[in-house]
């Protein structure tokens, strides 16, 4: 493991082989797989799991209940949530504790990619090799190999056999469409 001296890694973190953790990262009670890279200012909470050979870019928040499988790319500033109805206090006005809310799990499947500044609401599954465009808000499941973008995110295309953009839901070709331009193309 290579960790910057400013990174905070709690003793209860399970780290795989050859993990790289950059400056000011904060990890506690989580699992990080072999050869995964964690960027600057990333927080990974207790109960979160990140697979092997994943890349988590700077300023990302991975909360309790999130599972990220192998070879996943997470862009800069991606935010995950784990509570559908967050509140600071109970109905009686007391500060909420662990027993006062329900953690809703989220899964990001193998080789998926999530663009910078995306927000992933809890309870969704992002399918294998799916691509989430930058700035998207994911409110429901993303099918495997789908390219989604927007607020809320919706399917724009599917990856073809070669891994390039393939057909859109209406059957039109996605050839030549850059993933970074999908949000602009859709008028978002």
Give an overview in words.
With 188 residues, the chain is mainly beta. Helix content is 2%, strand content 27%. The chain has a single domain (1-84, 102-188), classed as 3 Solenoid (UDP N-Acetylglucosamine Acyltransferase, domain 1), CATH 2.160.10.10. The strands form four sheets. It has a nine-stranded mixed β-sheet, with no helix packed on it. A hairpin with a 4-residue loop joins strand 21 (146-149) and strand 22. It is globular, with a radius of gyration of 17 Å. The N and C termini lie far apart (41 Å).
Question: Which key features would you list for this structure?
Answer:
188 residues; mainly beta; UDP N-Acetylglucosamine Acyltransferase, domain 1; nine-stranded mixed sheet; six-stranded parallel sheet; 1 helix; 22 strands; 2% helix; disordered C terminus
- Give the helix proportion (percent range): under 10%
Q: How many discrete domains?
A: 1
CATH topology: UDP N-Acetylglucosamine Acyltransferase, domain 1
Compute the separation of the termini in Å: 41 Å
Beta-sheet strand percentage? 25-35%
Broad CATH class: Mainly Beta
**How many H/I helices?**
1
CATH 4th-level superfamily: Hexapeptide repeat proteins
Instruction: Count all strands and give the number.
Output: 22
The SS-based structural class is mainly beta
Output mean pLDDT.
90
Cross-sheet strand order for the largest sheet: 1-4-7-10-13-16-19-21-22
Question: What layout of secondary structure does this protein have?
Answer:
Elements: E1 2-3, E2 8-9, E3 14-15, E4 20-21, E5 26-27, E6 31-32, E7 37-38, E8 43-44, E9 49-50, E10 55-56, E11 61-62, E12 66-68, E13 73-74, E14 79-80, E15 106-108, E16 113-114, E17 119-120, E18 125-126, E19 131-132, E20 137-138, E21 146-149, E22 154-158, H1 182-185
């Amino acid at each position: 493991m290579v960790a910057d001296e400013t990174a905070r890694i709690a003793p209860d973190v399970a780290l795989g082989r050859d993990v790289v953790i950059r400056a000011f990262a904060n990890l506690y009670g989580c699992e990080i797989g072999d050869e995964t890279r964690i960027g600057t200012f990333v927080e990974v909470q207790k109960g979160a799991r990140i697979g092997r050979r994943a890349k988590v870019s700077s300023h990302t928040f991975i909360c309790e209940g999130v599972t990220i499988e192998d070879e996943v790319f997470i862009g800069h500033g991606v935010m995950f949530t784990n509570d559908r109805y967050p509140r600071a206090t109970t109905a009686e006005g007391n500060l909420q504790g662990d027993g006062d809310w329900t953690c809703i799990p989220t899964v990001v499947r193998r080789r998926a990619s999530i663009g910078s500044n995306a927000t992933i609401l809890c309870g969704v599954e992002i399918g294998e090799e799916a691509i989430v465009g930058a700035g998207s808000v994911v409110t429901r499941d993303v099918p495997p190999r789908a390219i989604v973008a927007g607020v809320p995110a919706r399917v724009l295309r599917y990856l073809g056999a070669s891994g390039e953009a393939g057909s859109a839901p209406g059957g039109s070709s996605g050839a030549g469409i850059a993933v970074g331009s999908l949000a602009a193309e859709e008028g978002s």
